[in-house]
Amino acid sequence: MSFFDDEDDDPLSPPTRPAPNENYGMRASSSREGSVSGSSSFLDRLRSTVSPPPAQSHSHNERSRASASIFDESNTSISGREYGGSILGEGEEEEDGMGLGLGLGQGLEEEEDEEDMNDVKRLGKIWVRERGTPELGEWKGELIDQVFDKLEQQQKMVNTLRSDPQTSEEEHFKLMLVQTEMERVKYLVRSYVRTRLHKIEKFAHHITLSTDMHHLLSGAELSHARRYTELLHTHFQHSALDSLPEWLRKMDDTYGDGLSMVSKPNRNTPVLIYCRKDCGEITLEGGERAALARGTTHLVKYKLVDRWINLGWAEVL
Amino acid sequence: MALPKHLQNGLTPDELTFLAEEETIDIVPLFSMTRVRLLSGIYGPFTPPSSAKVPLWLALSLKRKRKCRIVPPEWLSIDRVQNVLKEERENAESFCSLPRRFIEISKVLLDVAQDDSMQPSLLRSLLKDLREVRQAKIRIGLQSEGVMRGSYLQVTNLTPLELSELKPFLVKAMGIMQSLEPRGDDDEDEEEGQ
């Protein structure tokens, strides 16, 4: 049916995916039998992916109606009906009685379920998180792969429809929108990867030394971290360390005061978090306690809240 | 290197605006088009008198081509903003809760689609007042004793944009305060790296 629809059960299933290539080949050699019908039906299908017939998008429609209702229906009806009310309570106003109803839609919108979000929104979330925390987060390979697959398909579709003279004006306009969005998504992916790369290079030695961190990195990232460390160390050795006395040559020494040469993420860096759920209380240095109630925002040391962040209960801003 | 220095302190206002542009908004299209399927979902159909819900970036892009009218969100009506401003002034202790991307969205809407809001200049001055009242509160809050001494701050109801303005300063100040404190035992192996 379509391979762009994120609502379809299996948008990337084998039967649909190879199709573009096959038909591509057929179009190229148009003398082959059946090629005309093959390519035209393929184009039809492509068209239908840019302009999906109403029936296909049923579930998405539901969702957009749900989000529409965020602003104009009462709180309870949303949480009860559309979202099953799991995370969304009715108590958005309880934090302080002065939201003026203005924060109402806001609160609900923010507490959208992870599953309810589209890929782009999710990508945005993990990007923000990566930017906001001092430590390297988990590599979201699945989501990235998914996004890449979709981008690739969109690109194929754009290329095909663009060069097809039958493509109407309206479709060209749609293609422009599709491309605009692709650029936006690519930017997000790029920035996400760069942020990680920055952290990986900064803590390359630490990462290669601590095997328990390796599951957080993708294969490419890990091998980059290793190679980077190696290069850096060989460089240091050749340029300076080899001329020093043996006991000064180490790269992983610890000074007398406990300062290590291997730089690690500073887990004392404050992070901004928004509590999506009630995260209980934390104990601060001075023995004071701070409550991380739902819907509140805090600037707090990363090491005190990292488990809530990892659980997704607290969202990094 | 991988991440330019000016991006290392956290998200910039531009990046926050970029995120805000993923939020959906209502538009009234001035052209007809069937549904369009994008990575983030399916939008449309666009049939002139009836409205459609699209991501903000799409709305802005259409608006720049004069292909739609943007329906400002309800929270951006003069009445609502006036109420918030009043509340914000009356309550010196805490902040009003605003939609998360309040500042970014209101700014781009006033920049690109000011002819779609009722009284753009009034709205603009209200928003400016609101922002100033909040900023003043933030400054007063930061002056109060002990804020800089600890390494914790409750910042409920400040929007990410306001926080991103504060964060570099606060993080740095807290870092300096920490390095001045006598070192705790458990911190010793974690101090550097920043």
From TrEMBL, chain A:
Any idea which UniProt keywords this protein has? DNA replication, Nucleus
Q: Which InterPro entries match?
A: GINS_A, GINS_bundle-like_dom_sf, GINS_Sld5, SLD5_C, Sld5_GINS_A
**Bias category Acidic residues: which stretches?**
1-11, 108-117
Which GO biological-process labels does this protein carry? DNA-templated DNA replication; double-strand break repair via break-induced replication
Q: Bias category Low complexity: which stretches? A: 29-41
Q: Where is this region: Disordered?
A: 1-117
Please state where this protein is localized. Answer: Nucleus
Q: Which Gene3D superfamilies does this entry report, sorted A to Z?
A: 1.20.58.1030
| Domain of life assignment | Eukaryota
* Entry's family note: Belongs to the GINS4/SLD5 family.
Q: What is this protein called?
A: DNA replication complex GINS protein SLD5
The lineage, from the top, is: Eukaryota, Fungi, Dikarya, Basidiomycota, Agaricomycotina
Automatic annotation (TrEMBL), chain B:
Q: Which residues form the DNA replication complex GINS protein PSF2 N-terminal domain?
A: 12-71
Question: Where would you find this protein in the cell?
Answer: Nucleus
- Which keywords are on file for this protein? Chromosome partition, DNA replication, Nucleus
Main location per the UniProt record = nucleus
- Return the similarity comment: Belongs to the GINS2/PSF2 family.
Subunit: Component of the GINS complex.
**Top-level taxonomy:** Eukaryota, Fungi, Dikarya, Basidiomycota, Agaricomycotina
Q: What is this protein called?
A: DNA replication complex GINS protein PSF2
The answer to whether the entry has keyword Oxidoreductase is no
Record-level GO BP terms: chromosome segregation; DNA replication; double-strand break repair via break-induced replication
* Residue ranges annotated for the GINS subunit domain, each copy included: 75-179
One of its Pfam families is Sld5
Can you supply one Gene Ontology CC term for this chain's record?
GINS complex
Name the InterPro entries on file. Answer: GINS_A, GINS_bundle-like_dom_sf, GINS_Psf2, PSF2_N
